[in-house]
């Protein structure tokens, strides 16, 4: 067992770290405040190859692996989570389903532009009435045999990267039939942006991740060719379970980045801020807070490294991915709260990065499976 990074992994980590500090940090607060999508940053991330990290070179990928993606996400989130979640959703929710389940034609059509970052894709699973209970999906797709098209009707809620100027498509889960036992047959269908009947609602007014793109989507007799079915008909449930299992490792990495960013900012501030005649960092009460924050970031990092290692070795990793996501999101919220506390009143002011970290931390306990859902997965995997 060796959790030390290879020279190549260190080089990737360091280049994303430099990019986050030099390119993202100076401008992201303005985007966050104005709630604007950081197109220029995304363009540069594309040029660096970040959107192609875990994909094969045949479609323009970097030939890396999922762990490389996680390292990049951690470093980005150490500075800003809006940019990190844009990458996470684009890769693990947007491009990955096509890479894993698509036909050769679908891959050739979509992957080169998604992997270069020139275009983004969203993944539409959640609905206004169903999130954790995704099997409850009500969006329907009916095959019109006269035109050989799927006719989609329904709505999806909170879909990341679904409404940017460079969004090329969303993959949506829909009920395509009822099985003999009465259960729903779920399938996944690719819906290109601009398809008539595919309506992107105005962006939400979010508490955090305000420089990322999230929309409700409405499908009103939206027609796409039958060949836009992703993988086999009726495999939608299994497909999204696989995508979410992997995605949890990526979200854990993102959460570790935020937690580590809280440590960075707390140390800096504690050395500068004076109270009762000396830097607050001289007080053991502050030092202990920072030590606990570092301990939490470190243990959560080991948890996601372990889950990623199991996944890449082809071993079962469902439980470890859920543990990593549950632990990392919990400690990210803890660290954001403590970092804000260390900053005192200034921690409540938007001009300090910790205010952004605090606002961005809570969603980590909700998105891609709530903490309750992670506990359900862990308990089920333990045979309960
Ligand atoms: C900013 C943002 C971006 C998102 N991006 C995407 C995206 O790109 N694609 C996508 O498909 N979705 C996306 N989501 C949706 C997200 O994954 C869901 O919000 C999440 O899965 C929870 O679903 P829900 O909001 O419907 O909550 P619910 O499922 O309604 O849950 C409400 C509460 O009940 C609890 N609960 C539910 N069932 C149980 C149970 N059996 N036992 C105990 N407790 C339970 C939950 O844990 C939660 O605390 C995004 C959400 C946000 C806010």
UniProtKB/TrEMBL annotation:
UniProt lists the family membership as follows: Belongs to the acyl-CoA dehydrogenase family.
Pfam families xref list:
Acyl-CoA_dh_1, Acyl-CoA_dh_M, Acyl-CoA_dh_N
Name of the protein this chain belongs to: Acyl-CoA dehydrogenase
Read off the PANTHER family from this record. Answer: ACYL-COA DEHYDROGENASE, ISOVALERYL-COA DEHYDROGENASE, MITOCHONDRIAL-RELATED
Q: Does the keyword Glycoprotein apply?
A: no
Question: Does Cell wall biogenesis/degradation show up as a keyword for this record?
Answer: no
Where does the Acyl-CoA dehydrogenase/oxidase C-terminal domain start and stop, copy by copy? Answer: 234-382
Print the keywords alphabetically: FAD, Flavoprotein, Oxidoreductase
- Cofactor dependency: FAD
Sorted alphabetically, which SUPFAM superfamilies does this protein's record hold?
A: Acyl-CoA dehydrogenase C-terminal domain-like, Acyl-CoA dehydrogenase NM domain-like
Q: Where is the Acyl-CoA oxidase/dehydrogenase middle domain?
A: 123-222
Origin superkingdom: Bacteria
Domain Acyl-CoA dehydrogenase/oxidase N-terminal residue range list: 6-118
Q: What is the lineage of its organism?
A: Bacteria, Bacillati, Actinomycetota, Actinomycetes, Micromonosporales
């Amino acid at each position: 067992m060796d959790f030390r990074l290879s020279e190549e992994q260190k080089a990737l980590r360091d280049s994303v770290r430099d990019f986050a500090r030099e390119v993202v940090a100076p401008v992201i607060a303005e985007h966050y405040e104005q709630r604007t999508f950081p197109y220029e940053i995304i363009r540069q991330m594309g040029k660096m190859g970040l959107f192609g990290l875990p994909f094969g070179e045949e479609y323009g990928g970097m030939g890396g692996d999922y762990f490389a993606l996680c390292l990049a996400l951690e470093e980005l989130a150490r500075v800003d989570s809006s940019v990190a979640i844009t990458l996470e959703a684009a890769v693990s929710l947007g491009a990955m389903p096509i890479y894993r389940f698509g036909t050769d034609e679908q891959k050739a059509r979509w992957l080169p532009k998604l992997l270069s970052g020139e275009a983004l894709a969203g993944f539409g699973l959640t609905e206004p009435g169903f999130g954790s209970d995704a099997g409850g999906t009500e969006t329907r797709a009916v095959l019109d045999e006269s035109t050989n098209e799927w006719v989609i009707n329904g709505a999806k809620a909170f879909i990341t990267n679904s409404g940017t100027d460079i969004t090329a498509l969303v993959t949506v889960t829909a009920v395509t039939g009822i099985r003999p036992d009465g259960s729903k047959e779920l399938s996944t269908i690719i819906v290109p942006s601009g398809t008539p009947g595919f309506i992107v609602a105005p962006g939400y007014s979010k508490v955090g991740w305000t420089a990322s793109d999230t929309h409700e989507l409405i499908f009103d007799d939206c027609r796409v060719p039958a060949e836009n079915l992703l993988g086999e008909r009726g495999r939608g449930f299994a497909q999204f379970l696989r995508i979410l299992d992997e995605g949890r490792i990526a979200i854990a990495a993102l959460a570790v980045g935020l937690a580590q960013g809280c440590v960075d900012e707390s140390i800096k501030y504690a050395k500068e801020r004076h109270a009762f005649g000396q830097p607050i960092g001289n007080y053991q009460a502050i030092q202990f807070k920072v030590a606990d924050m570092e301990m939490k970031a470190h243990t959560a990092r080991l948890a996601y490294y372990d889950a990623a290692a199991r996944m890449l070795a082809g071993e079962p990793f469902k439980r470890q991915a859920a543990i990593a996501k549950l632990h990392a999101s919990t400690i990210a919220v803890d660290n954001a709260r403590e970092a804000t506390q260390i900053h005192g009143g200034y921690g409540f002011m938007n001009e300090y990065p910790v205010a952004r970290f605090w606002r961005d931390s809570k969603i980590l306990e909700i998105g891609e499976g709530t903490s309750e859902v992670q506990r359900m997965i862990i308990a089920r995997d333990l045979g309960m």
